[in-house]
Amino acid sequence: GAVVSQHPSWVICKSGTSVKIECRSLDFQATTMFWYRQFPKQSLMLMATSNEGSKATYEQGVEKDKFLINHASLTLSTLTVTSAHPEDSSFYICSANTFSPRDNFPDEQYFGPGTRLTVT
Amino acid sequence: GDSVTQMEGPVTLSEEAFLTINCTYTATGYPSLFWYVQYPGEGLQLLLKATKADDKGSNKGFEATYRKETTSFHLEKGSVQVSDSAVYFCALSARGSTLGRLYFGRGTQLTVWP
Question: Average pLDDT for residues B34-42, to the nearest whole number?
Fold first, then answer.
């Protein structure tokens, strides 16, 4: 199956600094990627939809200036947490769809392994 | 709007017990339905899926049937193993959606004791 990677797998940073998380589709092209945030023992919260070559679409309540998303190529999307604070500590997960060759609609969604961010 | 309601956990079972995790959905049209599994510290893996009514998805001994009349997609396994301990998420995707956005349930923590 398709593979999505994330880097780094974990990161610790100091309050006030910025952190960049990369999401790559390794063996397929992804015009759309999704960024989720997951709190301990909770479900995934969709933060934004990342579109290659255009601006990301943010969910209500997600600060776009805080969580910068750049989808620079068909295989790479990045999430930058700017001026991170302890409340930004979380597990961040990205995903990407493959598309059915039959009808060009999304087929399966593949998830990265996640990035554990800890802000001290 | 589209949503998924999933049985709350945690669920604790002994090895070889029967597992059911309930999932119901609300959607316009006929969505595709999924079960994902998340092992500790990892991302989500697709466990099984069904794309139309009466389809049965199955994988690794797990099964779920797409029931349009009850808007349900309950996950079952006849005999669980310790290695099945994980969090299970039910999800739906609107059919024909060009983006493929997934709507997730809250997740159900399953712990299997030897």
Answer: 90
